[in-house]
Each structure stands twice: as C-alpha cells, then as structure tokens.
Amino acid sequence: MLRIIWAYLLYTWGGLHRSFGNSNHVRSEHETAVDYFARATLIHPDFRQARLARGILLSRELARHDEALAEFNWLLEEDETDGEVRLNRAMLYQQIGKYTVALADFEAYAAQGGVHANEAERTAVILRELLAEK
After folding, report:
1. Any idea where the domains of the chain sit in the sequence?
2. What does pTM read for this prediction?
3. What distance in Å separates the CA atoms of residue 80 and residue 111, rounded to the nearest whole number?
4. What is the pLDDT of residues 25-51, one digit of tens each?
C-alpha cells in the first residue's frame, strides 16, 4: 500500500512540474515531470495514468515521439479498449505524418464512442481526403 501512495505522490509531483513547465515554457520542468512519471511507474508498473501522462508529455511538449509511442503501445497491449490512449496515439501518428495508422486509430476511437468521438470522426474524414489525394 505504501508503494502505491509513494507512486501516486511522484505522479502528482510530475503533474505539478508539467503544469509549471506549460505555464512558463520551461523545458527542464517537462524533463523533470517525465522523470517523476517514470519513477512512479517503476514503483508501481501497472500505474496506467502515470504511463499515459508520460507518453502525452513526451509526445506533445518534448517531441520525443519514439518514447511516447512506446508508452502508448505498451498501454494498448495491456488494454486495447483504452480510448484515451488510442486517441493520443492517433494524434501522435498524425503529428509525425503517419496518416494511415493515425486514421485507423481515429476511426477505432470514434467507433468506441469516446468523449471526443465527434472530433475524431471529423479528423478521420480529413485524413481520408488527404490520403485519397496522394
């Protein structure tokens, strides 16, 4: 139980560093947040939210796409129905120009009926049009 509490505290500290980094555009705060999220998952390997937060941070703020993709893939291997992970992986694939796999993830997310299903479907329409032009 103590390990879970410690992991949660590390996750919370990571979130604080991410927030500070976002507010003040300080990359070193983002790096610190990544470290805290990683430490939380070392202590509690099944701490999905910490892995997801790490993947999002790596993807969006730090552009460390390979590492982010590894986190998203690990999470989806454990639970392929996790819509939040699938949506974030779709956005990452779109960001790096892998439109075919991004489209598949956006479509899968939209089919699940997640909170952002309408936006995912609109993005899927745009990606289909883009791929048709190629």
Report:
1. 1-64, 80-134
2. 0.92
3. 13
4. 999 999 999 999 999 999 999 999 999
Residue type, 17: H
Residues 58-95 pLDDT 10s: 999 999 999 999 999 999 999 999 999 999 999 999 99
Count CA within 13 A, CB hemisphere, residue 106. Answer: 23
| Three-state SS annotation for the chain | CHHHHHHHHHHHHHHHHHHHHHHHCCHHHHHHHHHHHHHHHHHCCCCHHHHHHHHHHHHHCCCCHHHHHHHHHHHHHHCCCCHHHHHHHHHHHHHCCCHHHHHHHHHHHHHHCCCCHHHHHHHHHHHHHHHHHC
